[in-house]
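Batch manifest, entry 17 of 40.
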Amino acid sequence: MTVLRTVHTADLTTGDRTRIRAMLDEAFDGRFDDHDWDHALGGQHILINVDGTLIAHGSVIQRQFLHREKSLRCGYVEAVAVHRAHRGRGVAAAVMTEAERLIDHGYALGALSASSAAQGLYRARGWRSWTGGTAALTPTGVTRTPDDDSSTLIRPVMGGALLDETAPIICDWRDGDVW
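Output type: structure tokens
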């Protein structure tokens, strides 16, 4: 039986955290580090289990973005992964359907940073490249992040922020990858 469950980080058991981290480490071929794990915590986790085994994960965490001198509450998608044996069956789409529901009903916009291999999944769902350039509000001020321009995708929310996609968007600071 397939079960999709959405649960806040605070409600994950120690066993849940251990299983999620192990699945993410495997799905990302060992390229999922402690910063990536930290970035996935503090929000809502979308978990898909088949017969009690975790096969997919994604999380939506809150971040603050600056755009055109306004602060925007952003639902940021992190750590979307599907176990190798279950890829190509629509499982990632199921994770994203729930992530998008959370974003559409709780945030001014959605955002994520996608690998080149994953961009097709997100673009097919209506996520758009941010054309105005990216930056981060670092401890020393606003710093352009041009290497992240091509991987940053945005999901405008109906009734959410009015966005000028030709202007820069600035994310909040965090250790590791800022986007």
